[in-house]
Give the backbone structure.
Amino acid sequence: MKLKSMKLKAVIVVLAVLLSGCDLVEELCAVEAEIEGPRVWAFMQFNVPEEGGEIGSYYYYGNISKELYEKINSNTIKRGFMLLEKVRYWGDDDLVHEYKDKEYSGNLVFRVEDLVRIKGINSDPLLGFDEPKQATAPVKADIPTVGAKAATARVVPRSAN
């Protein structure tokens, strides 16, 4: 596991150096922020230039470096690369899916300058919406009424992610 992490770090550094623009220091700071420390979940929108002058909009949930997230939010870093791990996306079926499959690792690298919007979220988004088990619990009425039936509330357990 440690070897895989080291290879990933090396790839990020090499990408940063090879594809660096005018401000190498800022891009290397983004890479440094990406390498170490805790990670947080975020929802991100990227507008990426494509062939023919078109702009492609991409919306992803991903696990990113907390330090990088904070630097982007404070506009300390405006250029460089960001690694999204455990990427999720909204499918055409209105469900959240993993990006990882037989072909893809589930990780994506984007340029910080292509980031249009970022919003922190508290946990890994749900992978689809399986119908949760339902239980009923009695609800106490605020005002007792004569001849009224006892009310019940639908309790949907939250899955632990």
Observations:
- The first strand starts at residue 39 and ends at 49.
- The chain has three helices and eight strands.
